[in-house]
């Protein structure tokens, strides 16, 4: 089945109240107050259509995929592979074989690191370039390779606004550079990195680029052919889909040349004890029974997102960002961390004299969910001389009223501690 | 003579019974933290630091005349208040008393969620450390010749 724009018909007009009505959890109360969910960078809520799809699968279509010939196994396989096609369309990959289903962004990055390492892409003294704002999932896999193969990890510096210093990237490149791996949108600062430019620079030296897209797919239109990156990893649960599913996109020629990540059933053509012939991509990288319902649920999340104009979503979130930035900046003692020119709707902040733990704990009593801590970006937090921040992160179902509540609760919290 | 752990726990339960909503509870906990004895700076080292994901906690033990005394601190005020609460119960007690009195009162005053391991604020680890110190000093004092 070919999935094109016409599959989705006309896009919905953006109406935040109607969108909120699609998400059952937004109606609930927390600590006796209406839930104000501002922790979308940690995970997003799910629309009824995704929840229904998951439930429907288990009620009607559950079977193991790819190997059976009975009716249910064919239906399940079809639904799963349809989801793969949807993912391909969603990020405009060239082919569905370039879409590998993984557990999430973290597994996607680890797959690339492991597989490239097995291929001897990395030798002692080779270099991998990451940035100072990376999530631990895009630092530790390379440190593991460093222990195994003796590579060097180089770090693109950032300025005090939280922007990557692009000219420094070129200075870091040497003949030994084997990969550039950067985050698209920072989960702590909200910075949107100039991925296309980074790819252009790296490709001019024939260096492949991996992009961590965990925080982008729910908020920006992604076109991997336009970006030109060699790998792009993202997570289902951060884009209104279920947990335990994600996608690693890789250019076909690259993936073809890479050895498998995990071994097991499904990723083979022929097995003897002497020799095994591996399957083609993407199945070569999908050992064992996958998260079938996860893939199908991700497909439903993609359907939901594509029922909108991605630009409308982005524009609305930028409005929220501007509104929240303005309101929070007026609070005495509050300092926003991460003030890049190009930002996604994420605001990290600190309040003088108050530990983020205290902030998060008190506003939780008002039903407000934010995140506090180092957000799995310890080197980044340290770069700003901090041990933790409080972080509010928005999605398309948040409202200005919710931001008002956040500001009110913060002011009340500050008074409490005086 | 200092109060027994059970007496202190009961006192705390009574104090918290007067408190109404969460705002009052947290205000009380914060005030407890403000009253905590200042933590000696020379012991604000890695050796006495108990790390949690979210906040930093320090714990310094002193064994004197068969009793274990603690000084504690945190960079988060609510956590500092809970440190103060725990030290009020466990500081100045014998190792045996510490080991035979798990912090059941926490449930009764409704703050056990702050000490769950998943909270990662250092408190759960601090509780474990208090018990470890009690065990260590108990073993040490038992080994001493009469």
Model description:
The complex is a heterodimer of chains A (418) and B (146). Chain A has 418 residues and is an alpha/beta fold. Chain A is 39% helix and 16% strand. Chain A has helices at residues 5-8, 16-22, 48-61, 71-91, 105-118, 140-149, 166-172, 195-203, 224-227, 252-257, 292-306, 310-329, 356-364, 378-383, 400-417, and strands spanning 29-30, 33-34, 36-37, 99-102, 127-131, 152-156, 177-183, 209-212, 231-235, 246-250, 268-271, 276-278, 334-337, 346-351, 368-369, 371-373, 389-393. In chain A, the strands form 5 sheets. Chain A has a 7-stranded mixed β-sheet, sandwiched between helices. The longest helix of chain A has 21 residues, at 71-91. The model of chain A has no long low-confidence stretch (mean pLDDT 95). By secondary structure, chain B is an alpha+beta fold. Chain B has one domain (5-138): Sufe protein. Chain: A (Alpha-Beta Complex), CATH 3.90.1010.10. In chain B, 48% of the residues lie in helices and 14% in strands. Chain B has helices spanning 5-17, 22-34, 77-90, 95-99, 105-108, 123-143, and strands at residues 49-51, 56-64, 67-74. In chain B, strands 1-2-3 form a 3-stranded antiparallel β-sheet. The two termini of chain B are 25 Å apart. The model of chain B has no long low-confidence stretch (mean pLDDT 87). The A-B interface holds A 31, 354-358, 361-362, 365, 372-374, 387-388, 416-417 and B 21-23, 26-27, 30, 53-56, 75-79, 114, 120-121.
What's this, in brief?
The complex is a heterodimer of chains A (418) and B (146). Chain A has 418 residues and is α/β, with parallel strands linked by helices. Helix content of chain A is 39%, strand content 16%.
SSE diagram, text form:
The complex is a heterodimer of chains A (418) and B (146).
Chain A: H1 5-8, H2 16-22, E1 29-30, E2 33-34, E3 36-37, H3 48-61, H4 71-91, E4 99-102, H5 105-118, E5 127-131, H6 140-149, E6 152-156, H7 166-172, E7 177-183, H8 195-203, E8 209-212, H9 224-227, E9 231-235, E10 246-250, H10 252-257, E11 268-271, E12 276-278, H11 292-306, H12 310-329, E13 334-337, E14 346-351, H13 356-364, E15 368-369, E16 371-373, H14 378-383, E17 389-393, H15 400-417
Parallel strand pairs in A: 3-15, 5-6, 5-7, 7-8, 8-9
Antiparallel strand pairs in A: 1-2, 4-10, 9-10, 11-12, 13-14, 14-17, 16-17
Helix pairs in contact in A: 3-11, 4-11, 5-6, 12-15
Chain B: H1 5-17, H2 22-34, E1 49-51, E2 56-64, E3 67-74, H3 77-90, H4 95-99, H5 105-108, H6 123-143
Antiparallel strand pairs in B: 1-2, 2-3
Helix pairs in contact in B: 1-3, 2-3, 3-6
């Amino acid at each position: 089945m070919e999935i094109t724009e016409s599959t989705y018909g006309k896009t919905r007009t953006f109406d935040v109240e109607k969108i909120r009505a699609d998400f059952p959890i937004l109606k609930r109360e927390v600590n006796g107050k209406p839930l104000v969910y501002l922790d979308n960078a940690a995970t997003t809520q799910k629309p009824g259509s995704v929840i229904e799809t998951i439930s429907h699968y288990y009620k009607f279509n559950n079977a193991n995929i790819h190997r059976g010939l009975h009716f249910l196994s064919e239906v399940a396989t079809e639904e799963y592979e349809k989801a793969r096609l949807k993912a391909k369309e969603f990020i405009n990959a060239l082919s569905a074989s370039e879409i590998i289903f993984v557990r999430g962004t973290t597994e996607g990055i680890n797959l690339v690191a492991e597989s490239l390492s097995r291929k001897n892409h990395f030798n002692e003294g080779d270099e991998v370039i990451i940035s100072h704002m990376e999530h631990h999932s895009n630092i530790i896999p390379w440190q593991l390779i460093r222990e195994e193969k003796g590579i060097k990890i180089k770090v693109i510096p950032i300025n005090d606004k939280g922007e990557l210093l692009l000219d420094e990237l070129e200075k870091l490149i040497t003949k030994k550079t084997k990969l550039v791996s950067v985050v698209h949108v920072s989960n702590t600062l909200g910075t949107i990195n100039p991925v296309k430019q980074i790819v252009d620079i790296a490709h001019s030296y024939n260096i492949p680029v991996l992009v961590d897209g965990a925080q982008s797919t729910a908020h920006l239109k992604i076109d991997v052919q336009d970006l030109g990156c060699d790998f792009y990893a993202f997570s289902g649960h951060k884009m209104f889909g279920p947990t335990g599913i994600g996608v690693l996109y890789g250019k076909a020629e690259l993936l073809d040349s890479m050895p498998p990540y995990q071994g097991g059933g499904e990723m083979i053509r022929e097995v003897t004890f002497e020799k095994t012939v591996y399957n083609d991509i993407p199945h070569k990288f999908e050992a064992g029974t996958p998260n079938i319902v996860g893939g199908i649920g991700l497909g439903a999340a993609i359907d939901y997102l594509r029922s909108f104009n991605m630009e409308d979503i982005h524009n609305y979130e930028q409005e929220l960002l501007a509104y929240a930035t303005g309101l929070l900046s007026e609070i005495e003692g509050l300092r926003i961390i991460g003030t890049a020119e190009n930002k996604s709707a994420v605001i990290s902040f600190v309040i003088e004299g108050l530990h983020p733990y205290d902030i998060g704990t008190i506003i939780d009593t008002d039903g407000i969910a934010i995140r506090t801590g180092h957000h799995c970006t310890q080197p980044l937090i340290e770069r700003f001389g901090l041990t933790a921040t409080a972080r509010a992160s928005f999605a398309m179902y948040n409202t200005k009223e919710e931001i008002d509540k956040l500001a009110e609760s913060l002011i009340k919290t500050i008074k409490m501690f005086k | 003579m200092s109060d027994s752990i059970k007496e202190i726990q009961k006192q705390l339960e009574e104090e918290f019974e007067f408190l109404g909503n969460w705002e009052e509870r947290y205000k009380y906990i914060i005030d407890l933290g403000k009253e905590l004895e200042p933590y000696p700076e020379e012991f604000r080292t890695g050796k006495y630091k108990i790390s949690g994901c979210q906040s930093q906690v320090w714990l310094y033990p002193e064994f004197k005349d068969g009793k274990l005394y603690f000084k504690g601190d945190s960079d988060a005020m609510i956590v500092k208040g809970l440190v103060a609460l725990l030290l009020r119960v466990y500081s100045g007690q014998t190792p045996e008393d510490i080991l035979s009195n798990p912090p059941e009162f926490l449930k009764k005053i409704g703050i056990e969620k702050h000490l769950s391991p998943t909270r990662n604020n250092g408190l759960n680890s601090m509780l474990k450390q208090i018990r470890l110190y009690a065990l260590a000093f108990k073993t040490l004092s038992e080994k001493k010749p009469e």
